[in-house]
C-alpha cells in the first residue's frame, strides 16, 4: 500500500506543477537619466573646486556610485536617491573638517545637474555638473617630437601654485619642503612621459597627468598593492605589484591616451592600459575634455625630479 500511495502523490504533484502558470519574469532595471559619470564644479565662498561623481545601478532598484572631492581619494556612495528629477546622496567625511556627512542635493536640468552641498563642518555651497566625456580614441596616436620640459637650471616653462619651494640646479628640480605645486605653462592631451624622481622615506608627491589624474609617489605599509601607493592612479587603480622603494633615483614611463593609462616603474609595468574613471583628488579642474598641464605635487613633502621628457600625440 505504501508504494502506490507514494506514486500517486508524486504524480499529482507533477501535474499540479505543470498546470501552474509560469512565474513572472524578474523585472528589468529601468535606466535612469542620472546614470553615468559627471564632472562637477563646486562653488564655495567665491572659490571654484573640482569634483566627480559616478552613478550606476545595483540590482533592480538601487542606485550606487563613487565620488571624488577636491581632495582625497575616490569613496563609495552606498545609495543615490533619485525621484521626480531630484537627486540626493551623502558620503562620510574623509579629509574635510567636521564629523557630519558630506551631503549633496540637486536637480537634473536638461543634460546637466545643479544643486547645493553641505560640508561636514556645516559650510554650504553650490555645484553644477556636466556629463564626463568618454575620451575614447578612434585610433592610436602618432607620436611627435620629444619635448624636454626641464632645463635643469631654472623654472623656465613652469609656474608655482602657492608658496614656492621649488629650485632647479645641476639638472635637478628640487622641492625642499612642503609648499606649492608646480605646473607646466604648456598643456597637453595624449602623450608619453619619461621622468626620474627621488623622494625620502615618509614623503609624498605625485605626477598629475593633464593636471587631473595623479600617478602617486608615496610609501605604503600594506601587505597587498593599494590605490594610494607608488605607481597607483590615486584612489582608482592599484599597481599590479608592490614597488615601494624610497631613497634612490627611480624612473616613470607613463603613456596616457584618452582615459587609458600605462605606468612603467624602473622598467617594470605596474599598470597596463587601464581606464582612469575620473579626476583624482587634488586635480586642477574637472574639465576632462580639454588639454591640461603636467603638475608636480609639492604640497606634501620634499621630492626631486630630473630628465622630464614628454612626447605628445598628434
TrEMBL record:
One Pfam family named in its UniProt record: 3keto-disac_hyd
One MF term in the entry's GO annotations: hydrolase activity
Keywords carried by this UniProt record: Hydrolase, Signal
Gene3D superfamilies, A to Z: Exo-inulinase, domain 1
UniProt KW Signal keyword: yes
Record InterPro entries: AL/BT2_dom (IPR010496)
Protein name: Probable large multifunctional protein-putative glycosyl hydrolase
Organism of this sequence: uncultured Cytophagales bacterium
